[in-house]
Amino acid sequence: MTDDGTPMTASQLTKKERMAILRHDMLEQDPEIRAHNFDEVNLGYALDIARQEAERCLQCPKEYCIEGCPVAVNIPRFISYLRDGDVHAAAESLLGDNALPCVTGRVCPQETQCEQVCLRAKTGRPVAIGYLERFVADWAQAHNGELAHATPRATQKKVAIVGSGPAGLTAAGELARRGHAVTVYEAFHAAGGVLLYGIPEFRLPKSVVQREVDRLVAAGVTIEPNAIIGKTYTLAELRESFDAIFVAVGAGLPVFMNVPGENLKGVLSANEYLTRVNLMGAWNPDSDTPVLHGQRVVVVGGGNVAMDSVRTARRLGAAEARICYRRSRDELPARAEEVHHAEQEGVIFDLLVAPLEVLGDERGWVRGLRCQRMELGEPDESGRRRPVPIEGSEFVIDCDMVVVAIGTRANPVLTSTAPDLRLNKWGYIETDEFGLTSLPGVFAGGDIVRGAATVILAMGDGKRAAASIDAWLTGEWPPASDVPEVAVASAAEA
Amino acid sequence: MAPSTCDDLGMHPIVARDQLSPNVTRLVLEAPRIARIRRPGQFVIVRKGPGAERIPLTIADADREAGTVTLIIQAVGKSTMDLVELVPGETIQDVAGPLGRPTDLIDAGHAVCVGGGVGTAVILPIAQELGRRGVEVTSVIGGRSREWVILEDELRAAGQVVTCTDDGSYGRPGFVTEALADLLVGGGVDAIYAVGPVPMMRAISEQSRPYGVHTFVSLNAIMVDGTGMCGGCRVSIGGETKYACVDGPEFDGHAVDFAVLADRLTTYRPFEAAAIERREACKVPRLAHEANREAAGAVR
Predict the structure, then answer these.
(1) Is 3.40.1360.10 the CATH classification of the domain at A15-146?
(2) Whole-angstrom Cα distance, residue A27 to residue A49?
(3) Would you tell me which of A65, A290, A429, A462 could form a disulfide with A170, CB atoms 3.0–4.6 Å apart?
(4) What is the CATH number of domain B12-99?
(5) B275–A225: do the CB atoms touch at under 8 Å?
(6) Which residues fall within 8 angstroms of residue B31, CB to CB, at 6 or more apart?
(7) How far apart are CA A441 and CA A112, in angstroms?
(8) Inter-chain CB proximity A226 and B94 less than 8 Å
(9) Could you say which architecture CATH assigns to the domain B110-264?
(10) Taking 70 as the threshold, does the pLDDT of residue A277 lie above it?
(11) Each residue's pLDDT tens digit, B183-203
(12) Is A74 left (phi over 0), alpha (psi -120 to 50) or beta?
């Protein structure tokens, strides 16, 4: 029986009938209302809608969608269980492929991955794979007790994972499933990394992240918070105690604009702003951690972090919240849905605008951002058209707060204490095709290898590294990985 | 080190507490890993429990055998007020560290360690280690009046101590800068370690500049994570932006832009006042809680 009591039935539709079904939109909180609260924007599918949407999948012989997924979720399989009404089987299928489906169902840029290559996108709108994943994953969280939990045979091998963000948690889940004893070291007081400190509550509720972490702990993963590798322990100490290590510390250091006035009060990195609001709960007035409530907030940058910051500013009461981005709309690196949601919530987009200087008042607070208009010139090495300043186009945006969201760089806290670990010229860790670093048994993935990218690419790295580590531990080196290599998408916001 | 059995995992019980001055409290708490590896100048980020702020506190002392660290806390905001109310047996949930670069210590010669108010707590581990290295240490510590002078006995174990009080109620009357001036004029000072309020550190840096005596100051910038991630603690050193948490907290006082530091420290001041007000409003249940605790025979 299905969740709502309707019987499971194998789908009988013809291809023509499937093609006739229109994509089901996600129910959302009203923009006027949600711009003033931190509740989740997307409300999720109901079962009947999810099943109807699943009927749109053509179950193509050539599974482009799986190839488009950085963690190679068997998308047609879980969708086919779902359309037959067997959510339970769909959940077990999905969880078998993806350690954090509640997360990816909410934050993946599906439009450039699975949904982009969906055959239905050629003639219309693709199957809403992300929404279906979220539906099944949420069902799995709500029915966790009913799912089969295999207890793997312990291998007696110990793996340390440094960082509990998407790469680390994914690897932890995969390795625990293979019977290895996994300890995850986290610098903050709680596990989740960017899922916790970076992505806001209204996009990814922290309770959802906590339940995903709880599931890993129930599967035998040990999490040690407040442990900064490079400070509390060195990498060398971990190597003495563990059979393999996966370094997934992220690209933690915020990049600033390097313009005059950047140290004025009211200028802060998106990392600081979002960490105060998300991890420390400053959106709640009862939290002990303060956060500035700007009335006129300018967020510099055009990626997901910029969208998260500007939408947060709106929710904290900013009458005017603007994005200042030096290229045009087409180059915005953010997910399409985030840009759309931001616009709905009244965010103003100053496109083709670059900051020159932060202006301060006599008390050292921000009073404005002096900017310059840009136009697009020839393509640069990233393939995007280079923004070129327009002479004499300078102007000032009045504001009382500036959030800088123009990217991050490698945090040297771990790497500076591991002199034998080979880095590239930007300080990121060098790895081979299997995720192995220059140190035997030490693997790395996520942003500390790629530079700032996405949750799902980090998870793909975690999954690949877990397969490699398993091969390393069982002596079957080099590994035969079934996870496809995914081209590193350029998420740089330069 | 044993994997997955971290001795710093979980709660950190308070094992001792005493009052050093009217608003400065010494807490000794269990943190065996940090006690073993910390070095002078390093700090921890402390979070009392759910809903509490993460605040940086210098490790004033540590006992490797007992597995404890000493934090000396000036109660100025809600979070520090909450911390100093803890009594032995109660716990701090999160203690992360040791963070920051250890102090750049000289190996020989004469070091003057200047501490103003609670900054004296930062000076203590530096003076201790300098003393162990055989460096001649003169500590100059000060306070408004006698009751505000802290850690005199502990510093005396590391070398000689000059105490100063603004009102002349104890030791030498006047500011620490005046005592330092005499030492500089006397010559033979190889390094100065100065920690205290921003105006004090600025004054001392200006004072030592003509003598060319290297002057280390410790910057108590605002920070969240303590690992370089938030950038909130950025300070201007020789015209370059640095992060106090990972590049410091100690810097060359002659290169620090103290005006930027002092200004940035006021960022959240309105919030601090509001938080203290909220805290006062919650005093009634707190008092009931304290009465219960005393009834249960808790030792203060």
Answers:
(1) no
(2) 11
(3) A462
(4) 2.40.30.10
(5) no
(6) B8, B12, B44, B67, B68, B69, B95
(7) 34
(8) yes
(9) 3-Layer(aba) Sandwich (3.40)
(10) yes
(11) 999 989 999 999 999 999 999
(12) beta
Tokens of A29: 């909180």
Shortest CA distance to B220 belongs to which of B177, B190, B264, B189? B264
* Complex confidence, ipTM: 0.88
Please report the residues numbered 213 through 232 in chain B whose beta carbons come closer than 8 angstroms to any beta carbon of chain A.
224-225, 227-232
Q: Is the pLDDT of residue B152 over 80?
A: yes
What residues does each domain of chain A span? 15-146, 158-252+409-473, 256-406
Q: How confident is the prediction for chain A on average, in pLDDT?
A: 91
Residue B50 touches partner A, C-beta closer than 8 Å:
no
Residue B2 confidence class, pLDDT cut points 50, 70, 90: very low
Give contacts of B94 with chain A, Cβ < 8 Å.
189, 225-226
Domain residue spans of chain B: 12-99, 110-264
Residue at token pair 């420390």: A280
- Dihedral angle, C-alpha A204, A206, A207, A211, nearest 10 °: 90
Q: Give residue B105's pLDDT.
A: 95
Rounded Cα gap, residues B204 and A376, in angstroms = 52
Residue B58: is its pLDDT beyond 80? yes
Domain A158-252+409-473 in this protein, CATH class? alpha beta
Q: What is the pLDDT of residue A81?
A: 96
Nearest-neighbour CA in chain A from B138: distance (Å): 31
Q: What is the 3-state secondary structure (H, E, C) of A268-293?
A: EEHHHHHHHHHHCCCCCCCCCCCCCC
Residue whose structure tokens are 């500076």: A416
Which two structure tokens, joined as six digits, stand for A356? Answer: 């020159």
State the DSSP H helix or E strand holding residue B69, giving kind and residue range, or none if neither. strand B68-74
State the average pLDDT over residues A176-180: 93
Closest CB to B96 among A228, A269, A288: A228
Is the pLDDT reported for residue A151 higher than 90? Answer: no
Residues 6 or more apart in contact with residue A142 via CB below 8 angstroms: none
Contact A147, A219 (CB under 8 A): no
Token pair belonging to A99: 């350690």
What element of type H or E holds A129?
A: helix A129-142
Same CATH topology for A15-146 and A256-406: the answer is no
Restricting to A residues 241-280, those with a Cβ less than 8 Å away from any Cβ of B are 241-242, 252-254, 256, 262-263, 265-266, 268-269, 271-272, 275-276, 280
- Using CA atoms, how far apart are residues B100 and A255, in angstroms rounded to an integer? 20
Residue B5: pLDDT above 50?
no
DSSP character at residue A145: G
